[in-house]
Structures are given as structure tokens and as C-alpha cells.
């Protein structure tokens, strides 16, 4: 790779662009190896600029010719771009460049995927298409002409005109280059339309490769629901005559919100009952919504610079979470989000990759599309909404849209809007954006003469580069119950601002039972002091569904920690509590299913580490297996009945009600298979008419060391379906016994359908290897070495995805000396690879610390 020496970029060094672009004309003459890009940039000096130096970004492109105001120039070119002198007045810069889409395996810029041309420009891919000020605070209108024999030619905005072998598009909304997109291919569409609240007709299309037409209907429905929801809840209507979505097989991330032309990883949009699971359907609905919502939060209002990424991502994740809550039930959605946040974001915050939601510096911005920026960024919005209240939140958002429409904005702008709309001082709250690490919240209680006092203290452990932490504003939702489970103080929001603070509740008859951090009102780690008995009480009586689940979760976590440490047996009362929830037919099946599922093995490793114990992934795995078996035995009298009750009849529907029933039924199936040798799972696999049921049955079989015949049948049935085959690859690695995981992954890399260039396939194998905690941490180090080998190979082709997956090693310092040494050796071997990309270099350097 010809990457320039890695350079750290700092937020504090931001300066406005020297030149602005008012309008861009682009002409693409497409060719798989020699595409010509003709650009005409209508530019002018920026009156607010500090410097006059003229520079256009450009990487991996060949300049054929350039002109300023019609006169040929011979600019100075280096590895990062183009320099020249320009007039001190408006001028036109023209360039002709050549690029090679078929050589582009990094999937950034213009590349080929399955015979089609497509683009990915966020964050800095446009500079691989032509010379341009590739920074989000330079916004221009675009006109794009595409010349190609391919039948479908798409770009941003509205279609202008098309003829034989060409098409022209115009995007009237000024946008940064990262929102540019182009697609050309032999595609078929799934068309529909939507009428906005202003009465405007919008043509909607999902474009796919021939053969995938049958997998578009659900995505289209989700798109229309998203458009309606954004009108109803945020008052935001769509602003072009067409909205196109294209499904692409080779894609580094989930999807991309290019103006009027969203490009999706096919896994994030294509679904049919036979090929996608309930979880896939829910994820697709959320991603369609997410990208659509970006049209206002990201596109109409974009980011001044990449340090402000959370401005669009945190807010848009928060909006898609609200949407899913409204579509599918807020309580289970909040639980799902908390599980993800604790498992991934808290882990990131506690390790060498910890960074603020708005980072202060980066080497490669692609390494900062993280759970911290996205999910913790969304939590900050949620806290803000709780603190100011829903009406004030709506007022502030209206002000945000009216004040900043068309702007490239900052977090300061965002907070200022809330201060102006509500009169609240958000100086201290703003520290959430700058301070990394997860606050620990310690709780103690006292009760005397009818007065109950809650003593809270917060403390955030140091993170890399931030040894000292300050107290944050914590919205803490609490309720108090009496000993019979009646709510005596309904949910009340306490605002904690100090390191230590007490809150008093008067006139109580008896000592109340505390229900704290209801609905997970702040992303903190609760250092609970509640006894097993109190938590069991909350599991059966709390009126807040999140806390009801969380009480059971925290009991299960303690049980798993005890079982790992001293091969203890689980308490009967804990198993009885779970069985009581299972038997309670008045509870939503989806809720029962989440209560009946345990923390992950990685969660247990974290819990042990936090308790000062070095986690042994092998012992953790055995404890989890043992607890599952105890639970299976404990509920064996009712599990077949519940399994049968949860049968869904009629045609498959991916809605929350049916998905919840399948989820509980399949939890029963996994427990039953521990005792029946897989008989029921084999039956379910044979009879299944949808992927949710076949995948659950296959998983249950693989987890008990069976399922070889089913695996073979699955491959025969689905070998031609790329997305289903990703499941086939992933399940084998994810469900392998610990000592077999590395061998299974290695064997699959030799399978003819393994494709290093396809990120979904690579993730199916190696993402699943990381997720198989005991297999990844097999004490021989076989998985570490295998992953290092393949990351080195992948890095030469696709640095972005290699860098992301290298984060699998981030928790290496938690483990014993043997595992630490082996992980460090693997990391060092990656780091020492000649020509390693800037992306992966930054990651392994930070991980090694
Ligand atoms: N903005 C996209 C989204 O969140 C993510 C694209 C990021 N891509 C990248 N290569 N960093 O929807
Ligand atoms: Zn996004």
C-alpha cells in the first residue's frame, strides 16, 4: 500500500475550508478497468478562510488533464492530492481522471460488486473518484451524467433525462461529497410510491440483481412505515421525487444514506420468510429506517467535520430505536438495546479502544464508526430527552431543523439549540461527549422514622489519555415498592450532578424496596447492593419491565459467576423464579424469552474481571453449559407444553407478536434438546417452512454436537443463496465446541464458497469465531493465530474490514499469562506485517497500548 506516513488529526486544529464549491458537474464514462471521470467544479474563495492554499484531495487516481477557467494547468500531485495556484475570485476547476473500479477491493470509492458498479464515499471515499475538497463542510449541488451500456444508471437526486447508453441526474440539495453515489448494472426493481404529508408523490424503488426480486417486499414496507413515522413523530417529510435503494453483495458496513440513493449491504435489506430469520427482519426494518432518517439528521443537517460524527449517528440511532420501539414494543426494544450496549460499548469503554463519543483525535476515521459513537451517542440523546421532557425535546428538535437546515453543524450547535429551547444550562451535560469510560454508580440506602434516603456516588475509571474523570449529569429514574409489590412512589427522575449525592423520600410507612435505573435511564454500571431475595422479589413484582428483566439478569449473572468460580450449583430459588416467569401466560412471550435467556459467556468474563478474578473462558463455558442443563431439567415438565403453545399457525409473518412466540418456543427447543438428544429439533428442522425455525433447530442440534445431516441438507438446499450460506458458515463456527472452533473455521476457509473479498463471508467465519468466546480463547492459541493469519491476508485487500475485525483482540489484558502472551504475539505479528494499512496499524497499536 502506498499510504502516506500515518498522521494524527486533531479536533482542535479544525480550520474552515479555503475554497467552497457551489456546484459540481460530473460525467462518468464507465469501464471496468478504465473509468473516466470528468469533473467541473464551480469554486470560490471562502470569505471565512484562514488560508489561501488551494488543495484538492485525491488518492489512487490518475490525472489525465486539468484546467482552471478553461486554461490547461500542470498541477503538483502527491500521495494525498493536488496543489495549484488559483485566482482570488470565483473560478472553474476542471479535471479528467482515470480510475480502475475492478481493482478496488477496499470497497471505498467506485468499485464492482457482482458485475455492477457501485460507490461508498463515507467517510473519505470520494477522493478515490476524483480530485475534490473531500470534507463534509464543503457542500455543493451535483449534476451527474453516466455513460454506460448497462440498463440501469442511478445517481443522487432526481432523474433529468436519459437516452440510449446514458442518464443524467440532478441533486438540488447541497451536499458534501461523502453523500455522493452512483450505481450502474443489470438490475431489476421493486417499485412502489408514497404520498408525503405535503401531498407530493414520491417514486420508491428497491433495485436488486435478477433473482432477488422476491426478497424486497418487506424492505419496501419498512421504508413506507419509516417515511410515515418521520412525518408523524418528527414532522419531517421527504424532499425529492424519487427514493432509490440498491442492494449490493460486497459492502463493508450495513448501509449508506447517500442522498436519494441509499446503498445497502444486501444482508441489510433482502429478506423472505424462507431465507431470513425474525432477527434479520427486525434488523432490516431498523436499518431501512436508520438510513431513511438520515435524510434529515445527516443529510439536510450534516457534520462540520468527522469529529462530529455522533451528531448524525447518535441522533439517527436514537430515532431508529424510537421507531422500532413504536413498531414492536418499547420494553423489549429497550432490553435488547441495553444488552448490546453493555456487551459491546461497555467493553469498548473499559479497554484500550475507549474513546469519547466525540473523539479528540484520530488517524483513520473509519476506525471511529464504533458502538461508542453510535450507541452511546444515542444514549446521550435519550438522557437529554429524559432530562428536558418529551415536549421540550420536540421543541428543541424543531428549532434544530429550522436553525440548521443546510448547515454542516457541530455538537456545540446541537447543545445550544437545547439551551435556547429550554433555558437549561447544559455545560456539565456536554461532558458526556468529551469524557470516555462508563460511570460506575454505587448505591446505598437508609431508612428511619418514615424517611428513606438513597445515597448515590458516581466514579468513572480512567481511560487511555484520560486519567482524571469528572462527575457527569446522570438522569436516574427510580420507583419505590412496598413489601407486597405495590408501587408507593411511581417512577421519579432524580438528577445527579455531584460525585456523591443523597435523595430523600419522606412519609413512608415501611422500608420500601428500591427499583433504580428504571428503563435503563443512564448508560452506567450499577454497583448493586441488593440481596438475592430483593432481586428475586423485583423479578416477580417490579412494575417497570426493564428492571423486572434486569433483576433476573443480575441474579443470573451472579449465579454464573459463582458456578464458574466454585463449580457451585444454582440456587433453587433462582430456578424457581425463572420457571415462574415462564409459566406466567399473562406475560408477553418475547419478554419471557428474554428473561429466560442468560448473559453471554463474554458478559460473565466481564463480571469476573470486574470482581478481580481472571476469567477462564473454558471454565465459563462449562458453567454456562451446566446452568442451561439445570434449567432444562428444572422446567422439563412444562417446556414441551410451552413449546407447543408457542406454535404459530398460518402464513409466516415477521411481526413482533409472531416473532415473540417463535423466540420463546425456540428457547424451549434449545432446553429440550439438552435432554431429548435432539429429537424435537430434528423434527422441527424437517418440518420448518421458514428460516427462523430451521436455523433455530439447526443451532440446537449443533450445540449438542449433532446436526451433521441437517448441515449437509442445508448446504444442498441453499448453496446458491449467498445470504443463507453466510448463516451456514457462521453457525458451524459459532456453535462449535471450544476445542473445535479454530479447526472448523480453518476448514471453512478452504471451502470453495469462502471468499476473502466478500466482507459478509469473512465476518460469517471470523465474526462467529470471535463470538464463540471459549473457542476463540482456546488455550492452545489456535484461534488467535488463525485470525491473525487471515487478518493479514485481508488487510492487503480490504483495510477497513480487517481493522474492524482486529478489535476481537481488544480485551487481551483481561486474561491469564498464557492467553495474554499468545494474543500479544498474534497482534505483534499483524503489526510487523510490511505494508500494513493505516487502518489496521492504528487499531493494533491502540490495542497493544
Ligand atoms: N453512515 C452509515 C450509517 O451509519 C455508515 C457508513 C460508514 N461507512 C464507512 N466506511 N465508514 O448508516
Ligand atoms: Zn448512520
TrEMBL record:
Protease found in the keyword field: yes
Co-factor requirement: Zn(2+)
Keywords: Aminopeptidase, Hydrolase, Metal-binding, Metalloprotease, Protease, Zinc
Record-annotated Peptidase M1 alanyl aminopeptidase C-terminal domain positions: 533-848
Reactions listed under catalytic activity: Release of an N-terminal amino acid, Xaa-|-Yaa- from a peptide, amide or arylamide. Xaa is preferably Ala, but may be most amino acids including Pro (slow action). When a terminal hydrophobic residue is followed by a prolyl residue, the two may be released as an intact Xaa-Pro dipeptide
Domain Peptidase M1 alanyl aminopeptidase Ig-like fold, residue spans: 437-528
EC number(s) given by UniProt: 3.4.11.2
GO molecular function: alanyl aminopeptidase activity
Enzymatic class: hydrolase
Residue ranges constituting the Peptidase M1 membrane alanine aminopeptidase domain according to the UniProt record: 219-429
Residue ranges occupied by any Aminopeptidase N-like N-terminal domain in the UniProt entry: 26-179
Domain of life: Bacteria
Keyword Protease: yes
UniProt similarity note: Belongs to the peptidase M1 family.
Protein known as: Aminopeptidase N
